[in-house]
Design goal:
64% of the residues lie in helices and 0% in strands. By secondary structure, the chain is mainly alpha-helical. It has one domain. The radius of gyration is 17 Å and the shape is globular. It starts with a helix and ends with a helix.
């Protein structure tokens, strides 16, 4: 059985598995799915296609993250928990989707080289600290 199948079963609406168990399984169950590897096609029309991401991947990702976050108590839905869930899933396509989204967001701010990227990350970190303090 693939890790993604286990995670989807745990996140099923009829499942009463606590979020802490889901997180533990996600962190500790190794993904042995060889089909989870990414095949890049740098000649594709857009970045998603170039990275082997299809629409079905984005739908599965969105549903899994939404189901997980909805399974948490309303006062315990920190964004970092969604990031932890994606990271612990071991699903390379999910992580790749996050990287693509982050890079697209940064490109909107015209970051063009590595130093600009680091500056942008520092700015986002400061902004995050300010928002957490409010």
């Amino acid at each position: 059985m693939k890790k993604i199948d286990v995670m989807e079963a745990l996140l099923d609406a009829n499942s009463n598995v606590p979020a802490s168990i889901i997180s533990f399984v996600g962190a500790n169950l190794k993904d042995i799915d060889k089909d989870n590897s990414i095949v890049f096609n740098h000649d594709a029309d857009n970045v998603f296609e170039a990275c082997g991401i299809v629409e079905k991947d984005t739908k599965i990702f969105a549903k899994a993250v939404n189901d997980y976050m909805e399974s948490l108590p309303e006062d315990g839905r920190a964004r970092s928990k969604a990031i932890e869930f994606v990271f612990n899933s071991g699903n390379s396509k999910w992580m790749l989707l996050c990287v693509i989204a982050a890079m697209k967001a940064m490109s909107e701010h015209e970051t063009s080289d590595f130093e600009d990227l680091l500056r942008q990350i520092r700015m986002l970190k400061r902004k995050g600290r300010q928002n957490d303090g409010e």
